[in-house]
Amino acid sequence: MKELAERAVETARLAGADYADARVLTVHDQQIYVQDLSPKAIQDVTDAGIGVRVLKDGAWGFASISRHDKRSAEKVAREAVAVAKASALTVWKDKVTLAPEPVHKDRFETKVKIDPFSIPIQDKLTILLQINRTMLGVGGIVKAFGTMRATRRHQFFASTEGSQIETLITTVNASYMATAAGKGDSQTRTFQEYPMNKGWEHIVAQKLEAHAQRIAEEAVAKLSAAYPAEGKMDLILNPSHLSLTIHESVGHATELDRVLGYEANFAGTSFVTLDKKAAKFRYGSDIVNFVADNNLPGGLASTGYDDDGVACQRWDIIRNGIFKNYSSTREVAPLAGYKRSFGSARADSYASMPINRIPNLSLMPSPKSISPEDLTADVKNGVWIEGRGSWSIDQRRLNFQFGGDLFYEIKNGKKARMLRDVIYTSITPEFWNAVDCISGRKYWEARGFRTCGKGEPMQVAQMTNGGPWIRVRKIKVLRGKK
User: Fold this and answer.
1) Residue ranges per domain, the chain?
2) How far apart are CA 432 and CA 407, in angstroms?
3) Which of 67, 215, 219, 422 could form an S-S bond across to 72 if both were Cys, CB 3.0 to 4.6 Å?
4) How far apart are CA 218 and CA 317, in angstroms?
């Protein structure tokens, strides 16, 4: 891999590139799907190739090929230079200038105790089938679904600046879902995925089979649950649910390429314009602190280096409620006055150009020993929400609504009857300014996403959006089904 990457960047340099980098990548991806009591699909594939990115006269060129040999490395490098030269003919202003980055010669590898690919597929199927068997044994359950996935990305990055970086990233996750039917309706309950950059030990730690009975029983109970009253009330949100709210209303909103108008696909652009940074914009209440940390142990964006060859870092996005920084790439960082990129460039394949992606972005817990029950004790009329559900958000990441997976009514400080089909709606800064209490570190979880979509053509990326439990005051609650 090293020799191919070096050959590609040297060929690009000799062909006239002002800058070039190459990523030689091999991805092993194994996915298992089980529906009811039989395997639905088993995918165990390896994809490999070379992607070369070139700057010439302030314009990008990119080319890729699904082969690993010297001739292909040279060919794709010359093609990338040709594209850059052609692109430069159309660029009269706004030429690309990369933020400086030290030269890195390094190797980074995910810490893995048990290789997930060493576990036989049959053993994984046995676990999923037993989970489904347990769920289908609960009266009222008509459908059961389960999945496991393991991915290993082996990449060598080289640039004309002299960086040579090898990374080996392993990611695992599992989830399952039960569907109940009755009373002219259906409801689902999900043991939601908790992906991490770890080995099979992470799957073992989740004790998947131990929760199957409860998940199925909760799905059935949702059929008889009451609909919520509508109006403004307090919310208690758990980390699994909160991860999506963080992702959509803070993560995407603070991607610098989106702020600059480079990205307008999938509810694109952002209300967090450059003037917000200078104005010390209040994004949330004083206790709201969002930290980006691409060195977070087990974090899905903890890759040692990004696909610009920038070392992973930790930085503030929001501190004491005040907006501080964006996520960025080497291309867009100078446009916001940054002297260095925060290292948020990711590509989902050797055949994709790196783009600005959400980092491991987390809401920090309280330094106090506050529990979910402590949060609930001061709520007279509210809703307790677990897990992710439906969601929508506008083009500027301001107006949103979120559902969930499990709901309970809160009355006079106590969790009461189960509810169903709850959604809440708010405006991003109003919502985060309504946060008045956060649980302690003990209740913080590094939840995240493996398939965040962005760009055109679309790419997927993974990142952790960790969080504690939170209490949010006077948020508008609606009934999801009429």
Assistant:
1) 2-224, 231-479
2) 21
3) 67
4) 37
- Does residue 128 surpass a pLDDT of 80? yes
CB neighbours of 82 closer than 8 A, spacing ≥ 6? 15, 61
As a whole number of Å, the end-to-end CA separation of the chain is: 57
**The pLDDT of residue 482:** 58
Strand residues in 339-394 grouped as ranges (E): 345-346, 355-356, 361-363, 381-386, 391-393
How does pLDDT run across 160-211, given as a tens digit for each residue? 999 999 999 999 999 999 999 998 899 999 999 999 999 999 999 999 999 9
Q: Residue 170: what residue type?
A: T
pLDDT digit string (tens) for 265-313? 776 799 999 999 889 999 999 999 999 999 999 999 999 999 999 999 9
Q: What is the pLDDT of residue 456?
A: 86
Residue 92, number of CB atoms within 10 A of its CB = 8
Q: Residues 258-262: what's their mean pLDDT?
A: 92
Q: Fold for domain 2-224?
A: PmbA/TldD fold (3.30.2290)
If one counts every other C-beta atom within 10 angstroms of the C-beta of residue 390, the result is 11
Share of the chain above pLDDT 70, in %: 100
Which amino acid is located at 193 in the chain?
E
Q: Read out DSSP for 94-161? A: S---PPP----EEEEE---SS-GGGS-HHHHHHHHHHHHHHHHTSTTEEEEEEEEEEEEEEEEEEETT
Burial class (CB in 10 A: 0-12, 13-18, 19+), 38: exposed
